[in-house]
Design brief:
Layout: E1 6-13, H1 20-23, H2 42-52, E2 56-61, E3 67-74, H3 78-89, E4 101-105, H4 109-121, E5 125-129, H5 132-141, E6 148-152, H6 160-168, E7 175-180, H7 184-188, E8 199-201, H8 206-217, H9 224-242, E9 258-263, E10 270-277, E11 281-285, E12 295-302, H10 304-307, E13 312-324, E14 334-346
Parallel strand pairs: 4-5, 4-6, 6-7, 7-8
Antiparallel strand pairs: 1-3, 2-3, 9-10, 9-12, 10-11, 11-14, 12-13, 13-14
């Protein structure tokens, strides 16, 4: 920690507590102890907010003795705040306030209201929706232009990209800005984002939100997927004929790497070898044929040439989407699995799946 004055916020519970191994991973994106019910994003988001604010966070816990978090934030006096804000108060002439309309779609109530309040303070007209279905209704019924759709990527029901594609036929000139607490690689497995599409990574500062909204509104061209959807209204069949590979399909890499896998709940591991890997899934030779929708734990190690400075273990939860059976005695079946959740572990330490 940097020397200085801090304000400390302590939060303590009386729960079951954590062992040291669990504590060492709690701030990692997608690490969760809740199985399929957890996303593993809560504490990683807290960590990002604290670090962006110049603070520090510590955790102490023992099994059976609860958990304590301590957050240290740089202490700022009222005089220091006034000194920082003073230059903004001496503006010679008022700047013309923008009157564009923004549709904010976010299922987390507090974040949606905070975003609306901040954007309204910047001079925008803001309408809000809690999910994709409500946003579509607003796009149909709203009188006047909606200049920007600001939408979360992962939402219950309709995700952000599906929403953008649906409303682009109603309002083809509306621009799109995505926001998400997931990394771009993580949400890419849903085909949600691709090159040329703008993402505001959560947690973000209000100044980052202000700058990104202005950046997207000032763009002279429509976002890639909205432009595609608008053109598809006229000649979608011709586009399908010309394009053999969909624009939003994740790039695949032909990598032959050993892996181990097992069905959820199994004790022993089975061995396999990848044929190709993308950010959304992988195709690998397996020991046996598995039916679609079977969920797997998959572990593989990316070599240093691919991962960076050191080998990196990828710990995945996947779901079988296709199985190719044995055609001969010497041919291993191939399984195609989409990645539902993953995280990385660098170095020589092997993480338990």
């Amino acid at each position: 920690m940097q020397p200085g004055e801090y304000t400390m916020l302590a939060i303590t519970d009386t729960g079951v507590g954590m062992d040291s191994d669990t504590q060492s991973h709690i701030f990692e994106p997608f690490f969760t102890t809740k199985g399929p019910k957890g996303t593993g994003l809560g504490l990683s988001t807290v960590y990002g907010i604290v670090k962006q604010s110049g603070g520090y966070i510590w955790v102490y816990s023992e099994p059976g003795k609860g958990t304590s978090f301590k957050i240290y934030m740089p202490h700022v006096t009222a005089e220091e705040v006034a000194a920082v804000e003073q230059p903004a108060a001496v503006v010679s002439a008022p700047v013309e306030t923008p009157r564009e309309t923004i549709l904010v779609v976010e299922d987390e109530v507090n974040l949606r209201r905070l975003t609306r309040q901040f954007l309204e303070n910047q001079g925008y007209d803001v309408v809000e929706a809690a999910d994709g279905a409500a946003a579509v209704q607003i796009c149909v019924a709203h009188q006047g232009t909606i200049h920007l759709l600001l939408t979360d990527v992962i939402m219950p029901g309709m995700n952000g990209r599906e929403l953008a594609q649906r409303v682009s036929e109603i309002r083809p000139n509306m621009k799109v800005l995505y926001m998400s607490g997931y990394t771009e690689n993580a949400i890419g497995h849903n085909g949600t984002l691709d090159a040329g599409i703008t993402l505001l990574q959560k947690p973000f500062t209000l100044q980052a939100l202000k700058a990104k909204v202005r950046e997207v509104l000032d763009q002279t061209t429509l976002p890639q997927e909205v432009a595609m959807s608008a053109r598809a209204v006229v000649h979608s069949e011709a586009r399908v004929a010309r394009e053999k590979v969909p624009r939003f399909r994740a790039q695949r890499f032909n990598l032959h790497l050993p892996l181990r896998y097992r069905q959820l709940g199994e004790q022993g591991w089975r061995q396999g070898t990848t044929s190709n890997i993308s950010r959304s899934g992988l195709l690998f030779n397996a020991e046996e044929v598995l039916q679609p929708n079977v969920q797997l734990e998959i572990n593989l190690v990316l070599p240093a040439e691919i991962a960076g400075l050191s080998p990196t273990e990828v710990v995945c939860r996947g779901e079988v989407v296709r199985s190719v059976g044995q055609e001969g005695a010497s041919t291993s079946p191939a399984l195609a699995a989409k990645i539902l959740q993953y995280h990385f572990q660098h170095g020589n330490h092997v993480m338990e799946a």
